[in-house]
Design goal:
It contains 14 helices and 25 strands. It is an alpha/beta fold and 448 residues long. It has two domains: 3-18 and 252-445, UDP-n-acetylglucosamine1-carboxyvinyl-transferase, Chain; 21-214 and 227-250, Enolpyruvate transferase domain (UDP-n-acetylglucosamine1-carboxyvinyl-transferase, Chain). The strands form seven sheets. It has a four-stranded mixed sheet. Strands 4-5-3-16 form a four-stranded mixed sheet, with helices on one face. It has a four-stranded mixed sheet with strand order 6-7-9-8, with helices on one face. Helix 6 (165-178) links the parallel strand 10 and strand 11 (182-186). Helix 1 runs parallel beside helix 2, helix 3 (92-103) runs parallel beside helix 6 (165-178) and helix 11 runs parallel beside helix 13 (407-417). The protein starts with a strand and ends with a helix. It binds shikimate-3-phosphate.
Length: 448
């Protein structure tokens, strides 16, 4: 389904975006383990989140729609038909978090399957720790389809070998399903929605950030220096009594979807406001990026609901400058990197992105997909093993973009199309349904 996009003359407005995908997944999947009902407000119609909801139903959750609210009533004990195959579609979060729940549910045997893209994505990162805890996995070369036999798991301590909220959450959910204690340590803190949701709706979870100590410098006692008391940056502990009791989850707007509209403001040097958008600090690295490349960022009406901050964000664009991104900065805006790369094409100077090899195992190889599409619009772009080098250009031309089955690639290059000389096409715009089915209506509403 090809879509034609034309350059626009005007950009601006105020919008709201659908509910946060990461939070919605967790609400749907945690309902399987909850002791009481969950009332969920603003659950998005994103295909990915609907996969998690469908999976919850398969495990015995009763889903009732009351107006625009969902009421999820958990089963007495998670159960599913013998040798069930549960389809996770395109959704890595559904597959990895659900794997944790199954792994810790003694007596359940379930096969998780997915579409072509999900079947290419690595599962070894969850198979290794969950097998160490005692679950049994059968997966060809660490990929879906993956058969899991849940067991009574053993208490577990794990240092994440990579920054991944999905791996961290799989281990926490496995511990909760098996009522065994788990400790997860992170070198680079990843998004913390699972921790916040357990703390808001349940009990038994503590998280601590390791802060540097200020100590005398042994080389010069008149000076002080910073020393990390531990070798990791964050520790999450779920006790054997960790549980979800039930309650209300009011999902804020998805920051990662809002980012595409903030980028439209940035490139056009105009103003766009997104209301009631999630502002969890593990997700908002993109706002700091916008500030550093020259935009004005205003946040108003910040409130915290169910442990998750939200507020109104207004971005006003300006002539954009290039920036170097690496390390923890990259983790803080990982899902936003395709649109960061598009903005780099409209910036003065050379943007360098390093430490982003995780992008190669997302819904597509996003490094390759971004480089391919940037070149199509006439941008000089180098593909590195762990990143990209992008030279900003002028009067870039409309192009025939390829989305590689990836919703964020489609959205990033649809935004780019608005600011190119001449028409562009997107080869399969339908992929936006994965995270934001109304994306093109929203894009039309802020541009003319
Ligand atoms: C997600 C975590 C991130 C992110 C993905 C959603 C989540 O993946 O890229 O889109 O909801 O936990 P990793 O945990 O693999 O880094």
């Amino acid at each position: 389904m090809t879509k034609k996009l034309l350059p626009v003359k005007k950009v601006g407005g105020t919008i709201t975006v659908p509910g946060d995908k990461s939070i919605a997944h967790r609400a749907a999947l945690l309902s399987i383990l909850s002791k009481g009902p969950l009332t969920i407000k603003n659950f998005p119609d994103a295909a990915d989140c609907q996969m998690s909801l469908a999976a919850a139903r398969r495990f015995g959750v009763n889903v009732e729609e009351v107006g625009d609210t969902l009421v999820l009533r958990p089963p007495e004990k998670p159960s599913v038909e013998t040798d069930a195959i549960v389809d996770c579609g395109n959704s890595g979060t559904t597959a990895r978090l659900l794997a944790g729940i199954v792994a810790g549910s003694d007596g359940l045997t379930v096969t998780l399957s997915g579409d072509e893209s999900l079947s290419r994505r690595p599962m070894k990162r969850i198979i290794d720790p969950l097998s160490e805890m005692g679950a049994e996995f059968f997966a060809d070369d660490g990929h879906l389809p993956m058969k899991i036999s849940g067991k009574r798991l053993l208490p577990f301590e794990y240092r994440l070998p990579l920054a991944s909220a999905q791996v961290k959450s799989a281990i926490l959910l496995a511990g909760m399903a098996s009522s065994c204690s788990v400790t997860v340590r992170e070198d680079i803190p990843s998004r913390d929605h699972t921790e916040r949701m357990i703390q808001s709706l349940g009990e038994g979870l503590t998280a601590r950030k390791v802060t540097p100590l200020i100590v005398p410098d042994p080389d010069d006692p008149r000076k002080k220096r910073r020393e990390m008391p531990e070798s990791f940056k964050r520790e999450v502990v779920l006790s054997s009594r960790g549980r979800i009791n039930g309650g209300t989850v009011d999902i804020p707007g998805d920051f990662s979807t809002a980012a595409f509209f903030f980028a439209a403001a940035a490139i056009s040097k105009k103003t766009i406001t997104v209301e009631s958008v999630g502002l969890n600090p593990t997700r908002t690295g993109f706002l700091e990026h916008l500030r550093l490349i020259g935009c004005t960022v205003e946040t108003a009406g910040k409130v915290t609901v169910g442990g998750e901050p939200r507020g109104k964000v207004t971005i006003t664009g300006a002539p954009l400058r290039a920036r170097k991104l690496s390390g923890e900065t990259v983790t803080g805006l990982l899902d936003e990197l395709p649109i960061v790369a598009v903005m780099a094409a409209f910036s003065e100077g050379t943007t360098i992105i390093r430490d982003a090899s995780e992008l190669k195992v997302k819904e597509s190889d996003r490094l390759m997909a971004v480089a391919d599409n940037l070149k199509r619009m006439g941008v000089k772009c180098g593909l590195l093993d762990d990143g990209l080098v992008i030279e900003g250009g002028k009067d870039l031309s409309g192009a025939d973009f390829r989305v590689f089955g990836d919703h964020r690639i489609a959205m990033a290059f649809s935004v780019a199309s608005l600011f190119l000389v001449g028409p562009s096409t997107i080869d399969d715009h339908s992929v936006v349904t994965v995270s934001c089915p109304g994306f093109y209506d929203l894009l039309n509403s802020i541009s003319q």
